[in-house]
Design goal:
The protein has 643 residues and is an alpha+beta fold. The protein has 24 helices and 16 strands. Strands 3-2-1-6-5-4 form a 6-stranded antiparallel sheet, sandwiched between helices. Strands 8-7-11-10-9 form a 5-stranded antiparallel sheet. The longest helix has 42 residues.
């Protein structure tokens, strides 16, 4: 009974081929044996009387081994084609003459496809026909000189459809329109099987590249693809040398599959790294400089971030002396993706229809698809950061504007509270401040308000809009200098003249309304004096400043105007101020002035010479003389009516 059970178990156990059989097939694969040799192990097993199960397993192993052999054969063939294409690229790189380039392409097409003839036809746009440009392997002079109408024959079908076309028997093929002249030339050449592929430049067909046999022959899909690659090279050669170089680089990439795979893997790693670093940057509150540094490091180039007006917001690395032209930036904005312009890659980013920024990358060579996505993702992140910063700036600007509006309208019930509000914004109202009123065209006031809000945030001040003007309260004690600087900077930003009036220095919240009124009058006075686009304070406007100034410092005006004469009279005991007063009262007549002073006319002349020496040249010009007369009159009033 034990023997029976044992026999039954052995009968149920599946029969497998000996382990050495698999090794035999591996050996055959390693030494690249012919397909017929893969039958030998199975024939030997049958001759040895092996069980049916083992024979079936051997047959299965043989089938798998032949499949592997076929796969390896296809890959070897593909490798040979790629190697040949790489060799073609090498040949093209050494050629500069267009005819030589095209001849090399046609010759290589015949060699790679192992056909009897290869030839190329080109479209002649001016004559409206197609002509034979290059032939290789042709024996018929008539065939080499053929010209035919556009759209005629097999080549016309290829050109119209912009797709490859194969005919196993040209003469019997009725899928295209035959022309007697073409058919006779083909017959004289003895061509039977023909493959034609279009030479495309974008969507335009420049011509057709053919491979033909004088006997029936099927063309495989791989051969169609290979000839199409050569046709693409021909189109590139016809376009220009630069495009030829780019195509050569593409073919070199096809010839280095392992390199492409490795680079693609590296690109994916860079994309993941860039994504993680940009996400971390946003979470920790990084700025545009941090973002530019990350993108420049990942993509290996220099990066600049420009605002919608082309001003640089951040830059890292070498972006070049001059960025792309405005037309390039506008084109990139219209496409919504990264585009190349010379040595720069340009990407415009925005929110909806609003353009927020432009990224300009200067990187060596072409950007891979992955690197392009990194740049485009960086554009999205940059737009988000700008929107976030704009929202914060808008909120802070509203708070600063509301505080300055309260100061201007005297809505300050509690000075302690208003000082606390200012300190929360980084402004100490008890420090010296100047107030500047900026007058600009109405159409530009919104942009001017944005600029002033940014200035206030950057310099620890306050900004608001009122009475059609932009108002800034910033730290400092030189209102005229601040007014000129702001007029110059805002004018450059807006591209137009801006007039600014300054007042101050002031301290505390109470003087703000009066300072605003004085600064307004200064700006209006500058316009009245024909000094639009300038900036000044009341103290810098001479007697006009005396009129527009809030405090009307008469003594200061007299001292500033007549100072040299007053000092001279005080030190020497002379009467130069009195003489000048008499001279003005006499209408500039020295003789009448001498009579009024009861002195000799020569004495008046000597005194006037001394006055001219102390005041310098030009003191008698109308505007200067008017200022001196006003000062002399005020000096007399002060002496007659001392306070």
């Amino acid at each position: 009974m034990d023997g029976t059970l044992t026999g039954t178990a052995e009968a149920r156990r599946p029969t497998v081929a000996e382990p050495g059989a698999a090794a035999t097939y591996f050996d055959l694969l390693l030494r690249e044996a012919a397909a017929v040799e893969f039958e030998r192990p199975l024939l030997q097993a049958r001759a040895d009387g092996r069980p049916a199960g083992e024979l079936a397993e051997l047959d299965r192993l043989k089938g798998r081994a032949l499949q592997v052999r076929a796969l390896l054969e296809r890959r070897r063939r593909r490798e040979a084609e790629l190697s040949a294409l790489v060799d073609t690229v090498g040949d093209l790189a050494t050629l500069r003459d267009l005819d030589a380039v095209l001849a090399a392409l046609v010759r290589r097409a015949r060699e790679l496809l192992d056909t009897d003839v290869a030839y190329m036809t080109l479209n002649d746009v001016e004559r409206g026909d197609t002509y034979m440009r290059i032939t290789y392997g042709s024996v018929s002079a008539r065939f080499r000189q053929v010209r035919l109408p556009l759209g005629a024959g097999l080549g016309g079908l290829v050109a119209q459809s912009a797709a490859p076309y194969v005919t196993a028997n040209y003469a019997d093929d009725d899928r295209f329109q035959h022309f007697r002249e073409i058919d006779d030339a083909v017959a004289e050449e003895g061509l039977v099987a023909i493959l034609g592929v279009p030479m495309l430049l974008g969507t335009r067909v420049l011509g057709v590249l053919f491979a033909a046999n004088r006997s029936a022959r099927p063309f495989t899909r791989e051969e169609v693809t290979l000839l199409g690659s050569l046709a693409a090279h021909a189109a590139v050669a016809l376009d220009n040398t630069r495009l030829l170089g780019e195509t050569r680089a593409a073919l070199e990439e096809l010839g280095a599959v392992n390199t492409v795979v490795r680079r693609h893997s590296e690109s994916l790693e860079r994309a993941a790294e860039a994504h993680d670093r940009m996400a971390e940057l946003i979470l920790r509150g990084g700025g545009l400089d941090d973002l530019a540094a990350v993108v420049a490091e990942v993509l290996g180039g220099g990066l600049a971030i420009l605002d919608a007006d082309g001003h640089c917001l951040a830059a890292v690395g070498d972006v070049g002396d001059a960025g792309p032209p405005a037309a390039a930036v506008a084109a990139g904005r219209g496409l919504g993706r990264a585009t190349r312009h010379g040595e720069h890659w340009v990407l415009a980013a925005g929110a909806g229809s609003e353009a927020l920024c432009t990224l300009v990358l200067r990187a060596p060579g072409e950007l891979s698809e992955t690197d392009t996505r990194i740049l485009e993702r960086a554009g999205v992140v940059t737009a988000l950061l700008l929107l976030f910063r704009r929202s914060l700036a808008a909120a802070e600007g509203r708070v600063r504007g509301e505080l300055l509006e309260d100061l201007l309208t005297r809505r300050v019930d509690d000075p302690v509270t208003v000082r606390q509000r200012a300190r929360r914004l980084g402004v100490d109202l008890d420090d010296a401040h100047v107030l500047v009123v900026l007058a600009c065209p109405p159409r530009l006031r919104e942009r001017a308000a944005q600029w002033s809000a940014a200035q206030a945030a950057a310099h620890g001040g306050l900004a608001a809009q009122r009475d059609g003007n932009v108002i800034l309260l910033v730290g400092g004690d030189r209102p005229g200098e601040a007014a000129r600087r702001m007029a110059r900077e805002l004018g450059g930003y807006l591209g137009t003249a801006v007039t600014a009036g300054g007042a101050g220095p002031l301290s505390g919240p109470q003087p703000v309304p009066d300072a605003y009124a004085e600064a307004q009058r200064c700006a209006a006075a500058l316009h009245a004096l024909g000094r639009a686009g300038d900036g000044a304070s009341a103290a810098e406007l001479g007697f006009v400043g005396l009129l527009v100034g809030a405090e009307r410092d008469v003594g200061g005006f007299v001292t500033d105007t007549l100072g040299p004469l007053l000092d001279y009279d005080r030190r020497r005991g002379t009467a130069l101020v009195q003489t000048l007063e008499a001279y003005f009262a006499a209408g500039g007549n020295a003789a009448r002035a001498a009579e009024a002073l009861h002195v000799h006319v020569n004495t008046v002349a000597q005194r006037m010479a001394r006055i001219g020496h102390l005041f310098g040249t030009g003191w008698q010009r109308p505007e200067r003389a008017l200022e001196l007369q006003l000062a002399v009159r005020l000096h007399r009033l002060r002496e007659d009516h001392p306070q």
